[in-house]
């Protein structure tokens, strides 16, 4: 271990020795940890997981007897293919460091995967190396795809989204191309054997079904989801298949042994359909580009032939015949001109006649109008008389009603109006003392009275 420049050679402290600040001590400790310990994989169980608003992820990685704090920065966390949760066993690729602000020892996590993926990946690499050493993946054994396949075979699950992606792509690029499905599960314990049998079935029935290219497709997923396509027997069957095979399994970043064993690898199922239909799609584009050129060439050729025919016809006609034809043409034109002039004169005469009839029909007729005026005048007089009679009757009715409601008429029917000595109308017996003077108005005069007692009505 190199000597610490802050201590003397013999390790003993001296009065002139430099005194470190806490910040300097933590920085030296962090640099020492990061330089002494390499980037490594650490496995354990997640606990105390916190997702900060900044996008950083903080958690504790622990096993049965120890724990360590971990931090995964946002630019790394957003690349995760799964969502970490408390209690999940994971493997973290991390750098040992120290958080200087608190002096806490922690791991700076670069990558995170569920526990167990590492062993699968190692098994994948061992099998891949074995098959590659046998020459199974040699480029020399790969076959080119036919430019214009008669039909495409597809090995996948009928319920897979990959099948829909392939069919949509083919409908857009080569809608005439027939498709034959060889169904097989793409995930599960029996998936490798079923996929292998489907590939063999496609090879046996290729001539009968008219299939020239085989697509092996599946959507994306984890390494466990795609593990059926890492089967050794399936890889050997793909290489032995009499049909050229295009493998479109997972996404662009996913690789399986089937990708290496196939004649062509596509990044996605849609990409596999595009590669298999590339010839037909290019042919459609070429035909679309050639169509206007062919149309122009045909039109140009017809024009040239028509001109040659016209010139030949001119050379074959005798001048006397041409004169006769011209005279006939002139006679026909003169006849047409005569008929056209006659038709125009007839049309003008007809228009003049119709205009005269409309003018006579629109001329005023005083006798008819006078009779109508007399009729309307009589109707107006009768209406005015009826209106005056109705208004007079209503006025009489209102006058009679008003007379009926007049105070004098009410008094004449036996009613009376009682007033106190101030002339105010009395409406209640309450509050009128005995002996009070009361004036009673009758229909024909007035009585001056005095209250001698009260009684109930």
From TrEMBL:
GO molecular function: exodeoxyribonuclease VII activity; nucleic acid binding
Keyword Disulfide bond: no
Reported function: Bidirectionally degrades single-stranded DNA into large acid-insoluble oligonucleotides, which are then degraded further into small acid-soluble oligonucleotides.
GO cellular component: cytoplasm; exodeoxyribonuclease VII complex
Keyword Cell inner membrane tagged: no
Keywords assigned by UniProt, alphabetized: Cytoplasm, Exonuclease, Hydrolase, Nuclease
Catalytic activity as recorded in UniProt: Exonucleolytic cleavage in either 5'- to 3'- or 3'- to 5'-direction to yield nucleoside 5'-phosphates
Domain Exonuclease VII large subunit C-terminal positions: 136-449
Localization: Cytoplasm
Taxonomy, superkingdom: Bacteria
UniProt-listed GO biological process terms: DNA catabolic process
InterPro entries: Exonuc_VII_L (IPR003753), Exonuc_VII_lsu_C (IPR020579), OB-fold_nuc-bd_dom (IPR025824)
Family indicated by similarity: Belongs to the XseA family.
Pfam families in the cross-refs: Exonuc_VII_L (PF02601), tRNA_anti_2 (PF13742)
Ranges of residues in domain OB-fold nucleic acid binding: 20-112
Protein name, entry field: Exodeoxyribonuclease 7 large subunit
Subunit structure as annotated in this protein's UniProt entry: Heterooligomer composed of large and small subunits.
